[in-house]
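Batch 3, record 17
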Amino acid sequence: MTTAQLRSEPMLTTPTRVLARTQETADTFTIEVEPPPGFSFRPGEFTMLYVYGVGEVPISISGDPDRTDTLTLTIRAVGKVTEAVGRLQPGDPLGVRGPYGVGWPMEAARGRDVVIVGGGIGLAPLRSAIYEILNHRADYGLVSIAVGFRRPEEILYVDQVHEWRQRFDIDLELTVDTAGDTWRGPVGVVTRLIPMLDFSDTAVAMVCGPEIMMMFTARALRDRGFAPDNIHVSLERNMKCGIGLCGHCQYGQHFVCMAGPVKPFSQAERLFGIREL
Amino acid sequence: MEAASVLERRNFNGLLDALTARGYRPIGPVLEAGRIVYGPIQRDSDLPIGKTDIHDGGMYRIADRPDDALFGYNLPSDSWKQYLFPPHSRLWTATKSNGSFTVAAEEIDPPRYALLGVRACELAAIRVQDTVFTGAFPDRQYNAVRDDVLIVGVNCGQAGGTCFCTSMGTGPQLTDGYDLVLTELLDGDHRFLVRSGTATGADILRELPLTPATPADCAEAEALIEHVSGHMGRMLDTDGIKDLLYDNAEHERWDDVATRCLACANCTMVCPTCFCVTTEDRPTLDGATAERWRTWDSCFSLGFSHIHGGPIRTSVKARYRQWMTHKLATWIDQFGTSGCVGCGRCITWCPVGIDITHEVAAIRTEEAVHAHR
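Prediction for the assembled complex:
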């Protein structure tokens, strides 16, 4: 056997199991998974989830980075694999690889104001950053969170969002694109919340949602004095490996799995501007 | 550089014997179904003796040579990547057990290949793939094969109609990275000028009946290289090419090429550096085991860029732009070199003859026209 044969297989998944499952909305659910041995992650990183015989899918971690007893992922069932994950119940097996990627700039944000803007399921990877900030609240300045959903019934983490809204040490604004007669909150796209947020000119922004939402949000933040280097967005592309070898996640010169998913808007703006890149 | 020696044509099988005796499996050019491809070589008679290949955009023909050259062709249709990085490979197998499953990595014990007839552009391509597969997550299977490969390079004695290695700085002469390098000399006695590049190569040479090369032999080999350099079928101006393509992502030429491109993926299959793969999960019918395979994929396929909601690159324009921009521009940012080695296979094997050198030239020329308006 040569040395090459002894090298570990980076594509090998680690079998583990589902601990709990919560239905968030009609098509979105959160699962808690028993973390593989030694697993730890930074907010904004992602894992490759494997369903036996079905396939693998990249999923951002949406849980608390300080908790080592559970790995939490929020998933929208939109394809073969995510639908199969959605059918898993507590006790069922699944495989995990990772974590991979470059997450949110939590270190750079220390001592500074933080603005978090999430659109729809884009709140999932941001929730890990929110946990981190709340776990170490004194390390950060003013914290403002703006979240937008398409409809009231699509609001993720409803109980938690209510709890965060009641805190005195963070500001959370929420809007929906469309709502029925009983909705008493703001209606409109999430960028309309940005004038309401409070931050200094050294603040760090973390933005995640559909590409068009991230682009308009980043521009609105820039218009309010943010340097594009201080605005961070999370890119999304097809991924088959998560380790820079399959080529699928290329976005311009970046392998999103290795150089991202989180990138400063200063680097992402040009990419956002090119159709079908 | 190691001093050159001469191996007479009649002793060529001695080289094959020496490789085989060391446990190598020689792979080299063979004529098969009207084209030259790479395949197992046992004797010199397996080589495409007296044959050559004619290349142009979307055109390939085999022709007879007026001599009995063993390596008198330009470039096989397939590249060495099929051996170093096979089109299909199993990564691991999962087996159901106790309500869960276990996974076992594929056991790999690859043959020790001796690659016979590696051209300068092809060695450059192997090195490009080396960079891809030895990054932060070294590819286990690629490196297992690559670590044991013996490279017997053969300098080109002619340039093909779609060749542009001189533009890419990759050829036509092998300068390093080989175990052995041959130059086939057809003037006078049919013979090979040989040099070793590694200790293994030197050991092999010691077993062969060689004579010292004369100054005339060396001069003939140099003249050949010079002739080949001056007769490239194509040229590509690489000056500032990264910025050229970054700045012209919305150039109207992409619409033009999209009207011709069939998105058939031939260029990515024959390209010696293209490395994109997809994964496949293959459960058995009873579900007792489930295998994970990887197979070559292409950025020209619609599903390549699929995320929830559909593909990102729906238009052929976007897919051609992705391929060419990756090859010539973003590759430089990713891996520090161009992803193109100038072998010309993508031109020859494009069914409609799309020519990467013409496409770059068109963008460059039309950009210059716009700049002067």
